[in-house]
Amino acid sequence: MTDAPLSPVREARAVKRFKRAWDSDFAYSFRRSPVAVVSFVVVAILILAAVLAPVIAPHDPFDPATLNLMNGFTPPMTENQFTGEVFLLGTDDQGRDVFSTILYGMRISLFVGFSAVLLAMVIGVTLGLVAAYIGGWTETIIMRTADVQLTFPAILVAMLIFGIAKGITPPEFRDQMAIWVLILAIGLSDWVQFARVVRGATLVEKNKEYVQAARLIGRSRGAIMLRHILPNVLNPVLVIATISLALAIIAEATLSFLGVGAPPTKPSLGTLIRIGQEFMFSGEWWILFFPALALLALALSINLLGDWLRDALNPRLR
User: Fold this and answer.
1) In this protein, which residues make up the domain named ABC transmembrane type-1 (predicted)?
2) What is d(CA 158, CA 178) in angstroms, rounded to the nearest whole number?
3) pLDDT at res. 316
4) Is residue 141 within 8 Å of 301, Cβ to Cβ?
């Protein structure tokens, strides 16, 4: 009963906060960019479809009990001559519904992408902060390591890390650990760009007055880096994370396409594309086309959203 009179006040505050956010420069820039709006809608739909795959998917493609080999190679929107069933995007060689496999495969691709970017961001931001703020031999070792890694293509570094990690994993746990090994491989191959950007921004921020004032009042190095410098270098990190998400999803698809990524028991979009290319020249084009189209739409939309975010957070373009 005591909270009832406060509800109109809380509602008014919520409306005021929403209006302030809606009228902000960031929201205005988003509304004025049709590419950003369309990209956001596409990304939101694909992520929502992947999250709700168990609800949306007509079939569970990874449950052998639900598979019927008689449904194999059914074209899209065509009645199967043996079972009479109709599938929206057709079926593959094992009779699995392609639409369902795309939804479940996209879940794995997004999970790997988000997890790998998060791992790369944590490693890169931490090393970039430490290198720039502490300096000396610490900075030299970190940045020379980053320079050495940049001389190799990221996909080759990911394949090397994946091979080493999989090699030291017991054979009976390799399929269960394949996804986590994949995340580790992509994350460790992508931390360099975060570290370089954060280092450059930290070199600028650490000489400003607010950092010097924090030193004068006795703040520790860790507190200054985490509570004062880090919030002021996050804008470029968010932009890189958005673009890196698309690159991580493509890297996962590339590794899975090459057969060193997601296991066949839990196929991602890359695995589905690898399976589909085996039937590309035999007439079953849909097995390859629709997973590739889903990967293209996802990666392209995230990239376009990242490009807009880079411009929106650039103070020189305001």
Assistant:
1) 106-306
2) 13
3) 58
4) no
In this prediction the pTM is 0.88
Q: What are phi and psi of 97, to 5 degrees?
A: -65, 120
Counting Cα atoms < 13 Å in the Cβ hemisphere of 189 gives 26
What is the rounded CA–CA span in Å between residue 17 and residue 25? Answer: 14
Output the CA–CA distances (angstroms, integers) from residue 16 to 11, 33, 249, in the order listed: 9, 24, 38
Q: Give CA–CA dist 100/163, Å, rounded.
A: 30
Q: Do 125 and 237 contact (CB within 8 A), yes or no? A: yes
Tokens 């880096």 — which residue?
Answer: 225
3-class secondary structure, 39: helix
How far apart are alpha carbons 38 and 303 in whole angstroms? 12
Question: What's the CA angle centered on 255, arms 88 and 183, to 5 degrees?
Answer: 100
Give yes or no for a contact between 180 and 169, defined as CB atoms under 8 angstroms apart: no
For 154-191, the pLDDT digits (tens) are 888 888 888 888 788 787 777 778 888 889 889 998 99
Structure token digits, residue 2: 């005591």
> Rounded distance, CA 84 to CA 302, Å?
39
